Amino acid sequence: MICAVKQSVSPTINGSDLFLRKKPYPARPVLQLVPALRKPERLGLVTVSRPLHVNSVEKLSFGSVRYREDRIKCEAYEAADQSKPVEPAETKSEAARKLKIGIYFATWWALNVVFNIYNKKVLNAFPYPWLTSTLSLACGSLMMLISWVTRIAETPKTDFEFWKTLFPVAVAHTIGHVAATVSMSKVAVSFTHIIKSGEPAFSVLVSRFLLGESFPVPVYLSLIPIIGGCALSAATELNFNMTGFMGAMISNLAFVFRNIFSKKGMKGKSVSGMNYYACLSMMSLLILTPFAIAVEGPQMWAAGWQTAISQIGPHFIWWVAAQSVFYHLYNQVSYMSLDQISPLTFSIGNTMKRISVIVSSIIIFKTPVQPINALGAAIAILGTFLYSQAKQ
């Protein structure tokens, strides 16, 4: 606690006037002897009592007759043995906010790693990416419906205009989700995510040539390591597959359009990040289901399911359930994180997420990686980080 005490000081007389004697000039009127406060010539420190400390005490002396205002500055501490002022409440709230964001990020990365591991296990034993994608959307939609019915989560207030603007977002989300799953069914998880780290390059190119947006020079320069790193990694991939490569590229393009449609169509909509993704999953499920039936069909699913159960056993059912649940959870947490942080922080977090997925998948699945391939991945991820810095 800091306070300032102001006081007015009465006129003073010089010490030579203390003696009464005759003078050749008219005598001054007799003034009451009062000590005067002068402006400090040096800083002093006077301890009044513990825990109160008085700083900048003005020097007391006899001076000429003049009026002046002097200040006494005080600092108080909570306890006598403390040496620092009381910490403001804002500092504690900022620390709590950073801790909350850190928990969001750690949960987001962990859930994403678990999803990719189980998703790859399912696709290795059950190579039907269209049904796998459908099940993950269906599981998330069912979880949110139960949350709304039981009042665990607040039911969003939507109207026809909301679903109308959500439709193009859901189309792009569906294409991106299926394309990424197709890619992971053909190539290693690490390779898919290395190619998906090139999404910023698609974002800049689409925004520049289709929307007419311009960007600063550093943004364009950051695309060089992104494109070069992805190309180097693809050229040196031991298990390269064109279908897997094109699936990751299509996923990048679809998610770019999803982001563009989201920015244009969802302005002014008061729906939380969790409920927004829930609505997006439900509409994507309605869009995807008929296409999944047409492309693969129940007969193929039944035959593939029997084969997987005979080879893996009952654990395969747990793998399917886990990849479906964790897919929804990691996306839900990512949207909840976006509500709490800036786009720049989210981009950095997304870059770090890809690193965690690439490293963990290489370790768990023992994916062979050449040094030149690892170098390409590092360059592409570094370019993604530079892009997030330059974009902001």
UniProtKB/TrEMBL annotation:
SUPFAM superfamilies: Multidrug resistance efflux transporter EmrE. The chain crosses the membrane at residues 101-118, 130-149, 242-261, 273-295, 371-388. It comes from the Eukaryota. Keywords: Chloroplast, Membrane, Plastid, Transit peptide, Transmembrane, Transmembrane helix, Transport. The keyword Transferase does not apply. It is a multi-pass membrane protein. The keyword Membrane applies. One of its GO terms (molecular function) is organophosphate ester transmembrane transporter activity. InterPro entries: EmrE-like, Sugar_P_trans_dom, Tpt_PEP_transl, TPT_transporter. This is Sugar phosphate transporter domain-containing protein. It comes from Quercus lobata.
